[in-house]
Amino acid sequence: MKKETLCVRGTNQKAFDERTGAISVPIYQSATFEHPALGESTGFDYSRMQNPTRLSLERTVAALENGSEAFAYSTGMAAVAGVAELFSIGDKIIASRDLYGGAIRLFNRVSKKNGIETDYADTTDIDEIQRKITKNTRAVFIETPSNPMMDVSDVAEISRLTRANGLLLIVDNTFLSPYFQRPLDLGADIVIHSGTKFLAGHNDTLSGFTVVKDPALGEKIRFLYKTVGACLSPFDSWLTLRGIKTLALRMEKQQSNAQKIAAFLLQNRRVKKVLYSGLPDSKGYEIMKKQASGFGSMISFEVESFALAEKILKSLSLISFAESLGGVETLITYPTVQTHADVPVAEREARGINDRLLRLSVGIEDADDLIEDLERAIG
Description:
By secondary structure, this protein is an alpha/beta fold. The protein has a domain at 248-378: Aspartate Aminotransferase, domain 1 (Alpha-Beta Complex), CATH 3.90.1150.10. Helix content is 38%, strand content 15%. The chain has helices at residues 3-9, 52-64, 76-84, 101-113, 126-132, 155-164, 177-180, 215-228, 234-244, 247-267, 285-291, 306-315, 345-350, 367-378; strands spanning 69-73, 92-96, 117-121, 137-143, 168-172, 190-194, 208-212, 271-275, 298-303, 320-321, 331-333, 357-361. Strands 1-7-6-5-4-2-3 form a seven-stranded mixed beta sheet, sandwiched between helices. Strands 8-9-12-11-10 form a five-stranded mixed beta sheet. The protein is globular and about 75 Å long. The mean pLDDT is 95.
């Protein structure tokens, strides 16, 4: 089944409600389920462990990523935290140096407290990853494209390295979604999504996912999932399922808009740098063409001064100054005080996250209207 059809139809819409013929997967707003008899089960016992609405969503996401199993969490960070529970005291993780601030906060404070060390690397450089591998290294964790500097890591190349060293490769695929990129097909072991973003797509719910191909690894995650209990509610599962129905249409429109906006920003004299993986002269362009079927709709750009960045955020009228990304509405974010506020200033600056950097999540509005709004705000 093609991705476009899978987004709309899912994998098992009729499985739980054949009696009514409901086209939309029902919301099974039940915490518990009746047993037919002692030792017998309908397959559903308690919603922390499994729920019919959530299962339908998980099977759809697993199929989209070409995985064997998916797990739906209450948020994207709950999914990251769930994966972090796979590791033990003394273990080491190598992570992309340019990473979502929430993940950095988790690794630097919670994982560190639990005795797990994180070593940050430029994961666009395979040799640097190789140099950082030690006898205690257990995994490599990457975002590609990364947040917010749009660094592109070669998933297939890194997977060859991780397999040769017996390591897990974990890929956050939030920025591209399975519509544009399938890391499991490239050799990744675990894929993570903030489902809040492109999968749900309407800025109206929170969700997160992990997806695996290896059933044995899935069993380890399932144990942690049901034990820690950060599962997605039936209603939020339904909202995310509904969002996925239009994933293909949204991703194509958002990408088309992003390409036009990136071209506009490149021509503006007050914009000093445009970071978009779909630009032919961007560092990761050729890798993106090899490992993804699209470039997505996330753009970061640096303007000439802090004063101009501040003016833009205040002057935009159509584009909303707000955190998050991936929804139908175009949003602009100021990473240094929003997504990466907890990262020390020196580290932010070293990674290029300065007070002149802005990040755009391009939506599905008319591109000309968005450009007009930016042009007026930039001046």
